[in-house]
């Protein structure tokens, strides 16, 4: 053999095993913390349901509410929109003792919904989170018409862009 083959180059850096050891230690620590969190209940990813939680819901346990249907509203989209029409329908969640009040005020609710939906710009309707903002604004306006404490929520049942 030659002398050049027997000697290793002195300039080559020696590979450190420190990153491998550090990765192994962090992996073991992470596994240990994960096991501790799961077994102690700090991470609620296991199903430890009691009999009370799995019991079927009784009708007497449900809140005393009714759903009043708002007739479907068709709105022509503003110029520059990607769609021609918006078809919107919803239901109002009402405490049962106020059902007749809300049904009596339904023409006003429809009027405010028509006015609000027609005043929106195309980007307001076609945006990513549009339905959430529209629901919030309409619910706020319904409360102003019906009165505070009578309406629990607005459930959008149809939001269709054609």
From TrEMBL:
> What Gene Ontology cellular-component terms does the record carry?
bacterial-type flagellum basal body; plasma membrane
Which InterPro entries does the record match to this protein?
FliL (IPR005503)
Top-rank lineage group of the source organism: Bacteria
Pfam families linked: FliL
Q: Which residue ranges run through the membrane?
A: 20-38
What subcellular locations does the record give? Answer: Cell inner membrane; Cell membrane
What keywords appear on the UniProt entry? Cell inner membrane, Cell membrane, Cell projection, Chemotaxis, Cilium, Flagellar rotation, Flagellum, Membrane, Transmembrane, Transmembrane helix
- Indicate how the chain sits in the lipid bilayer: Single-pass membrane protein
Q: Does the keyword Iron-sulfur apply?
A: no
Biological process, per Gene Ontology: bacterial-type flagellum-dependent swarming motility; chemotaxis
Summary of the function given for this chain in its UniProt record: Controls the rotational direction of flagella during chemotaxis.
Family indicated by similarity:
Belongs to the FliL family.
Database matches in PANTHER family = FLAGELLAR PROTEIN FLIL (PTHR35091)
The protein's name in its UniProt record: Flagellar protein FliL
Phylogenetic lineage? Bacteria, Pseudomonadati, Pseudomonadota, Alphaproteobacteria, Rhodobacterales
């Amino acid at each position: 053999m030659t002398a050049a083959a027997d000697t290793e180059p002195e300039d080559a850096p020696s590979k450190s095993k420190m990153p491998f050891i550090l990765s192994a230690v962090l992996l073991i620590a992470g596994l240990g913390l994960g096991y501790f969190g799961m077994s102690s209940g700090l991470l609620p990813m296991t199903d430890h349901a009691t009999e009370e939680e799995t019991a079927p819901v009784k009708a007497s346990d449900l809140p005393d509410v009714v759903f009043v249907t708002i007739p479907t509203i068709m709105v022509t989209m503003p110029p520059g929109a990607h769609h021609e029409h918006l078809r919107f329908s919803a239901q109002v969640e009402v405490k049962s003792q106020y059902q007749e009040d809300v049904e009596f005020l339904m023409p006003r609710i429809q009027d405010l919904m028509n006015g609000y939906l027609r005043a929106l710009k195309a980007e307001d309707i076609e945006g990513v989170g549009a339905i959430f903002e529209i629901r919030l604004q309409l619910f706020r306006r319904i409360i102003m018409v019906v009165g505070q404490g009578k309406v629990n929520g607005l459930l959008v049942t149809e939001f269709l862009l054609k």
